[in-house]
Write a structure and sequence with these properties.
- This protein is of the alpha+beta class and 265 residues long.
- The chain folds into two domains: 10-134, no CATH class; 148-226, Nucleic acid-binding proteins (OB fold (Dihydrolipoamide Acetyltransferase, E2P)), CATH 2.40.50.140.
- The protein has helices at residues 33-48, 75-87, 99-113, 187-191, 234-247, 254-262, and strands at 10-18, 20-21, 24-25, 59-64, 67-74, 119-124, 132-134, 148-163, 169-174, 180-184, 201-211, 217-226.
- The strands form three sheets. Strands 4-5-1-6-7 form a five-stranded antiparallel beta sheet. Strands 8-9-10-12-11 form a five-stranded mixed beta barrel. The chain has a two-stranded antiparallel ribbon with strand order 2-3.
- α1 runs antiparallel to α3 (99-113).
- It is extended.
- The model has no long low-confidence stretch (mean pLDDT 87).
Length: 265
Amino acid sequence: MLSGQRVNQEREIEFVLRDRNNGVEITPSSIGFARFNEFNKQVAEFLTGSERLPLEEVHVRIEPGSYKLVTLLPILLYSSLESDLHTLARQDSLGEIDPNRAKVISTWQAHAKASDDLHYSIRSDEPKFQPIELSARTDYRIGQIVPWVKVEKYLFGEVTDMGGSKKANVHIRLDDSGKVVRIGSNQGYLHDQEQNRLYRKVLVRVEAEQHFKTGELRHFRLLTFEDYNPGYDEAALNRFIDVGSKAWAEIPDAATWVNELRGAS
Protein backbone atom coordinates (compact mmCIF):
# COMPACT_ATOMS: atom_id res chain seq x y z
CA MET A 1 0.00 0.00 0.00
CA LEU A 2 1.29 3.45 -0.91
CA SER A 3 2.14 5.31 2.28
CA GLY A 4 2.93 8.93 1.41
CA GLN A 5 6.24 10.79 1.46
CA ARG A 6 8.71 9.57 4.05
CA VAL A 7 10.86 11.65 6.36
CA ASN A 8 13.97 10.05 4.81
CA GLN A 9 13.06 11.54 1.41
CA GLU A 10 12.02 8.47 -0.54
CA ARG A 11 9.15 7.77 -2.91
CA GLU A 12 7.26 4.61 -3.70
CA ILE A 13 6.36 3.72 -7.26
CA GLU A 14 4.22 0.64 -7.89
CA PHE A 15 4.47 -1.22 -11.19
CA VAL A 16 1.54 -3.62 -11.53
CA LEU A 17 1.00 -6.42 -14.03
CA ARG A 18 -2.54 -7.84 -14.06
CA ASP A 19 -3.40 -10.89 -16.13
CA ARG A 20 -5.11 -14.25 -16.01
CA ASN A 21 -3.71 -17.70 -16.73
CA ASN A 22 -6.31 -20.33 -17.71
CA GLY A 23 -8.98 -18.06 -16.27
CA VAL A 24 -7.18 -17.63 -12.94
CA GLU A 25 -5.56 -14.32 -11.95
CA ILE A 26 -1.79 -14.54 -11.73
CA THR A 27 -0.10 -13.92 -8.38
CA PRO A 28 3.51 -13.53 -7.23
CA SER A 29 3.56 -17.29 -6.57
CA SER A 30 2.08 -18.32 -9.93
CA ILE A 31 3.69 -15.92 -12.41
CA GLY A 32 5.98 -17.71 -14.89
CA PHE A 33 9.69 -17.23 -14.40
CA ALA A 34 10.26 -15.86 -17.92
CA ARG A 35 7.48 -13.32 -17.50
CA PHE A 36 8.75 -12.42 -14.02
CA ASN A 37 12.18 -11.66 -15.50
CA GLU A 38 10.77 -9.78 -18.49
CA PHE A 39 8.55 -7.50 -16.44
CA ASN A 40 11.21 -6.74 -13.82
CA LYS A 41 13.71 -5.94 -16.58
CA GLN A 42 11.22 -3.59 -18.23
CA VAL A 43 10.64 -1.82 -14.92
CA ALA A 44 14.41 -1.38 -14.52
CA GLU A 45 14.64 0.05 -18.07
CA PHE A 46 11.81 2.46 -17.29
CA LEU A 47 13.52 3.66 -14.11
CA THR A 48 17.00 4.09 -15.58
CA GLY A 49 15.87 5.69 -18.84
CA SER A 50 18.42 6.68 -21.46
CA GLU A 51 20.47 8.42 -18.76
CA ARG A 52 21.16 5.00 -17.22
CA LEU A 53 20.32 6.27 -13.76
CA PRO A 54 21.87 4.13 -10.99
CA LEU A 55 19.59 1.71 -9.18
CA GLU A 56 21.93 0.64 -6.38
CA GLU A 57 19.96 2.61 -3.77
CA VAL A 58 16.54 1.46 -5.02
CA HIS A 59 14.83 -1.13 -2.83
CA VAL A 60 11.95 -3.35 -3.88
CA ARG A 61 9.29 -5.64 -2.54
CA ILE A 62 6.76 -7.86 -4.25
CA GLU A 63 3.08 -7.80 -3.34
CA PRO A 64 -0.11 -9.46 -4.61
CA GLY A 65 -2.37 -7.69 -7.06
CA SER A 66 -1.85 -9.55 -9.49
CA TYR A 67 1.90 -9.14 -9.64
CA LYS A 68 2.98 -5.88 -8.02
CA LEU A 69 6.58 -4.69 -7.91
CA VAL A 70 6.95 -1.87 -5.41
CA THR A 71 10.08 0.25 -5.81
CA LEU A 72 11.38 2.60 -3.14
CA LEU A 73 13.38 5.41 -4.78
CA PRO A 74 15.64 8.07 -3.26
CA ILE A 75 14.04 11.45 -3.88
CA LEU A 76 16.89 12.60 -6.18
CA LEU A 77 16.37 9.61 -8.43
CA TYR A 78 12.61 10.11 -8.39
CA SER A 79 13.05 13.74 -9.46
CA SER A 80 14.87 12.56 -12.60
CA LEU A 81 11.78 10.75 -13.90
CA GLU A 82 9.05 12.83 -12.24
CA SER A 83 8.46 14.98 -15.33
CA ASP A 84 7.96 11.93 -17.56
CA LEU A 85 5.57 10.36 -15.06
CA HIS A 86 3.38 13.45 -15.09
CA THR A 87 3.58 13.78 -18.88
CA LEU A 88 2.21 10.23 -19.16
CA ALA A 89 -1.10 11.50 -17.81
CA ARG A 90 -1.74 12.17 -21.52
CA GLN A 91 -1.92 9.18 -23.85
CA ASP A 92 -0.42 11.09 -26.80
CA SER A 93 2.79 11.78 -24.90
CA LEU A 94 5.24 9.08 -26.06
CA GLY A 95 7.06 11.57 -28.27
CA GLU A 96 7.74 13.86 -25.32
CA ILE A 97 9.30 11.53 -22.75
CA ASP A 98 12.63 9.75 -22.47
CA PRO A 99 12.94 7.37 -25.46
CA ASN A 100 13.75 4.32 -23.31
CA ARG A 101 10.69 4.92 -21.14
CA ALA A 102 8.58 5.50 -24.24
CA LYS A 103 9.78 2.15 -25.60
CA VAL A 104 8.67 0.33 -22.42
CA ILE A 105 5.25 2.02 -22.42
CA SER A 106 4.82 1.29 -26.13
CA THR A 107 5.65 -2.38 -25.55
CA TRP A 108 3.18 -2.66 -22.67
CA GLN A 109 0.47 -0.93 -24.70
CA ALA A 110 0.99 -3.32 -27.64
CA HIS A 111 0.76 -6.35 -25.33
CA ALA A 112 -2.34 -4.99 -23.63
CA LYS A 113 -4.03 -4.35 -26.99
CA ALA A 114 -3.72 -8.07 -27.73
CA SER A 115 -5.50 -9.27 -24.56
CA ASP A 116 -8.53 -7.99 -22.68
CA ASP A 117 -7.20 -9.62 -19.50
CA LEU A 118 -3.83 -7.87 -19.55
CA HIS A 119 -3.44 -4.56 -17.72
CA TYR A 120 -0.42 -2.54 -16.63
CA SER A 121 -0.40 0.33 -14.18
CA ILE A 122 2.05 2.71 -12.53
CA ARG A 123 1.18 4.44 -9.27
CA SER A 124 3.14 6.75 -6.99
CA ASP A 125 2.73 7.95 -3.43
CA GLU A 126 3.21 11.54 -4.67
CA PRO A 127 -0.04 13.32 -3.65
CA LYS A 128 -0.73 14.92 -7.05
CA PHE A 129 0.30 11.93 -9.14
CA GLN A 130 -2.28 10.64 -11.60
CA PRO A 131 -2.13 6.83 -11.96
CA ILE A 132 -1.01 5.54 -15.36
CA GLU A 133 -3.16 2.73 -16.73
CA LEU A 134 -2.56 0.64 -19.86
CA SER A 135 -5.13 -1.76 -21.23
CA ALA A 136 -6.87 -2.79 -24.45
CA ARG A 137 -8.93 0.38 -24.12
CA THR A 138 -6.04 2.85 -23.76
CA ASP A 139 -4.02 4.24 -26.65
CA TYR A 140 -0.57 5.46 -25.64
CA ARG A 141 1.10 6.83 -28.76
CA ILE A 142 3.24 9.55 -30.28
CA GLY A 143 1.25 12.76 -30.66
CA GLN A 144 2.02 15.91 -32.63
CA ILE A 145 5.57 16.12 -31.29
CA VAL A 146 7.77 13.77 -33.33
CA PRO A 147 10.70 12.91 -31.03
CA TRP A 148 13.29 11.89 -33.64
CA VAL A 149 14.43 14.37 -36.30
CA LYS A 150 16.98 13.93 -39.09
CA VAL A 151 20.25 15.77 -38.60
CA GLU A 152 23.73 15.87 -40.08
CA LYS A 153 26.68 15.60 -37.71
CA TYR A 154 30.44 15.42 -37.75
CA LEU A 155 31.92 12.61 -35.66
CA PHE A 156 35.56 12.08 -34.76
CA GLY A 157 37.12 8.86 -33.54
CA GLU A 158 38.99 5.69 -34.39
CA VAL A 159 37.73 3.13 -36.88
CA THR A 160 37.58 -0.23 -35.11
CA ASP A 161 35.88 -2.23 -37.87
CA MET A 162 34.55 -1.67 -41.37
CA GLY A 163 33.06 -3.71 -44.17
CA GLY A 164 30.36 -6.37 -44.19
CA SER A 165 29.42 -9.04 -46.72
CA LYS A 166 25.74 -8.02 -46.91
CA LYS A 167 25.26 -4.73 -45.03
CA ALA A 168 28.31 -2.52 -45.12
CA ASN A 169 29.05 -0.41 -42.06
CA VAL A 170 31.81 1.37 -40.20
CA HIS A 171 32.38 1.06 -36.44
CA ILE A 172 33.93 4.14 -34.85
CA ARG A 173 35.03 4.59 -31.23
CA LEU A 174 34.19 8.23 -30.51
CA ASP A 175 36.95 10.30 -28.94
CA ASP A 176 34.64 12.36 -26.74
CA SER A 177 32.73 9.49 -25.11
CA GLY A 178 34.56 6.24 -25.87
CA LYS A 179 31.30 4.86 -27.22
CA VAL A 180 31.44 2.69 -30.34
CA VAL A 181 28.80 3.59 -32.93
CA ARG A 182 27.88 1.59 -36.01
CA ILE A 183 27.42 3.72 -39.10
CA GLY A 184 25.70 2.29 -42.15
CA SER A 185 27.37 2.73 -45.52
CA ASN A 186 27.54 1.00 -48.89
CA GLN A 187 30.13 -1.40 -50.18
CA GLY A 188 30.99 0.68 -53.22
CA TYR A 189 31.91 3.77 -51.21
CA LEU A 190 34.07 1.79 -48.79
CA HIS A 191 35.70 -0.11 -51.66
CA ASP A 192 36.70 3.14 -53.36
CA GLN A 193 38.57 4.49 -50.33
CA GLU A 194 42.22 4.95 -51.28
CA GLN A 195 43.36 5.28 -47.68
CA ASN A 196 43.40 2.47 -45.17
CA ARG A 197 40.97 3.79 -42.54
CA LEU A 198 41.06 0.81 -40.17
CA TYR A 199 42.46 1.61 -36.69
CA ARG A 200 43.05 5.20 -37.71
CA LYS A 201 41.52 8.47 -36.55
CA VAL A 202 38.85 9.78 -38.90
CA LEU A 203 36.44 12.67 -39.20
CA VAL A 204 33.15 11.62 -40.79
CA ARG A 205 30.00 13.41 -41.82
CA VAL A 206 26.93 11.36 -41.06
CA GLU A 207 23.18 11.55 -41.27
CA ALA A 208 21.35 10.39 -38.16
CA GLU A 209 18.19 10.75 -36.12
CA GLN A 210 18.44 12.86 -32.96
CA HIS A 211 16.00 12.86 -30.06
CA PHE A 212 14.80 16.44 -29.54
CA LYS A 213 14.74 16.11 -25.75
CA THR A 214 17.77 14.00 -24.84
CA GLY A 215 20.06 14.69 -27.79
CA GLU A 216 20.52 10.93 -28.26
CA LEU A 217 21.58 9.89 -31.77
CA ARG A 218 20.55 6.73 -33.62
CA HIS A 219 20.33 5.23 -37.13
CA PHE A 220 23.65 6.57 -38.42
CA ARG A 221 24.38 6.65 -42.16
CA LEU A 222 27.80 7.57 -43.51
CA LEU A 223 27.84 10.48 -45.95
CA THR A 224 31.58 11.09 -46.38
CA PHE A 225 34.97 10.67 -44.84
CA GLU A 226 36.29 14.20 -44.40
CA ASP A 227 39.87 15.34 -44.92
CA TYR A 228 41.45 15.51 -41.51
CA ASN A 229 44.82 17.10 -40.83
CA PRO A 230 45.64 17.46 -37.15
CA GLY A 231 47.19 20.76 -36.21
CA TYR A 232 50.35 19.16 -34.90
CA ASP A 233 52.55 16.12 -35.34
CA GLU A 234 51.78 14.10 -32.22
CA ALA A 235 55.01 12.10 -32.39
CA ALA A 236 57.10 15.27 -32.81
CA LEU A 237 55.25 16.96 -29.94
CA ASN A 238 56.01 13.99 -27.67
CA ARG A 239 59.71 14.24 -28.60
CA PHE A 240 59.78 17.95 -27.69
CA ILE A 241 58.05 17.23 -24.38
CA ASP A 242 60.66 14.58 -23.60
CA VAL A 243 63.54 16.95 -24.39
CA GLY A 244 61.98 19.74 -22.35
CA SER A 245 61.37 17.48 -19.37
CA LYS A 246 65.05 16.49 -19.28
CA ALA A 247 66.21 20.10 -19.63
CA TRP A 248 64.09 21.21 -16.66
CA ALA A 249 64.74 18.14 -14.56
CA GLU A 250 67.23 19.91 -12.23
CA ILE A 251 65.01 22.96 -11.66
CA PRO A 252 62.93 22.25 -8.52
CA ASP A 253 60.36 25.02 -9.15
CA ALA A 254 60.23 26.25 -12.75
CA ALA A 255 57.78 29.09 -12.06
CA THR A 256 59.93 30.54 -9.25
CA TRP A 257 63.05 30.30 -11.40
CA VAL A 258 61.43 32.18 -14.29
CA ASN A 259 60.14 34.91 -11.92
CA GLU A 260 63.64 35.35 -10.50
CA LEU A 261 65.05 35.82 -14.02
CA ARG A 262 62.39 38.46 -14.67
CA GLY A 263 63.27 40.22 -11.43
CA ALA A 264 59.90 39.49 -9.86
CA SER A 265 59.79 39.32 -6.06
